[in-house]
Amino acid sequence: MGGGKKEGLDEGERREVMEAFDRIAQNFHHTRRTPWPSLKEIGDCRGRRVLDLGAGTGRNARRIAEWGASVVVAADTSVEMLKVLRKNTNKERMERIHPVRCDALYLPFVPSSFDRVAFIATIHHIPKRENREVAMREVARVTADGGTVVATAWVLFQRRFLRQAPKLIMRKVRGGEVGDTYVSWGKDAQRFYHLFTLGELKGTVEASGLSIMKAYGERISSRVLPENWVVVAQKRG
Amino acid sequence: MKRRLLDILACPICKHHPLELRVFEEKEEIDEGILLCTGCGRWYPIIESIPHMLPDDLRDRKEDANFLLKWKRLIPDAVLKEGKP
Hints:
The structure holds two protein chains of two kinds. By secondary structure, chain A is α/β, with parallel strands linked by helices. Chain A contains seven helices and nine strands, in the order αβαβααββαβαββαββ. The longest helix of chain A is centred in the first third of the chain and has 21 residues, at 11-31. The model of chain B has no long low-confidence stretch (mean pLDDT 94). Chain B has one domain (3-82). Chain B has a four-stranded antiparallel β-sheet, with no helix packed on it. By secondary structure, chain B is an alpha+beta fold. Chain B has helices spanning 61-70, 77-82; strands spanning 20-26, 30-36, 43-47, 50-51. The A-B interface holds A 2-3, 5, 9, 11, 14-15, 18, 49, 71, 73, 77, 79, 82-83, 86, 98-103, 105-110, 113 and B 1-2, 4-5, 8-15, 17, 44, 47-58.
């Protein structure tokens, strides 16, 4: 892991994701304020050190701080997102929230730094399977023994992508992976998504050495098909 | 950046810890400064109180150059001459 810059680690695409989020940061905050329901799976945060990986403008980090975490590291590659986070968070909560600009594949933390990791709606923005596996191993590395990780990702076969299904499956033939797509943010940005099957998200978590406690589909606005996969895992010492 | 973050910050590439901190501007927090990795010789800027801990391939040459230029007087020679990337 680490070091090897060439195979698998596609620079262009990861940079593209970072820059797309820089462009939409201002706007993003207005529509993405409520924390994800699955955040509560992270458990008791009082006095805990928590990493919010892919923090964006802070919808989850602020809630984690409210829940009494002693340290909340809000990590994101997009510095514009982190600036908006800081601007929209009151001073008292900012005492405990630490914004850090970093990449999920190269986490700048010592092993076992965190009791809890929220890896929410983030892994689906990482291009290439190998990169996603590296990121999950990094998450496992910085999690302390007995610590909890909540990972969520967008579902491949959900209502908004059903019409695209054949195209998503054919993606592989054209050099991508099954589930790769782009979702636009108005006219401002095209954001990369890799849509997951539940088996794939579970597989990525298991390959990192974390033990899965719970895995399910979460419905947000749909009545039938879930939009998010949620995996709750633990690091066993 | 608050000082106590240093307890858990490591180099994203070689994972060396602790990182050496030089402060250029500090009010309630460290507003501007630099984090030095004595393991691999990389450096990471703190800009507007946010530490930028990106791997080489996501860094921006122009931003890096501007930062070094701005704080030239306060940055150790070793970084200016041999600092990576």
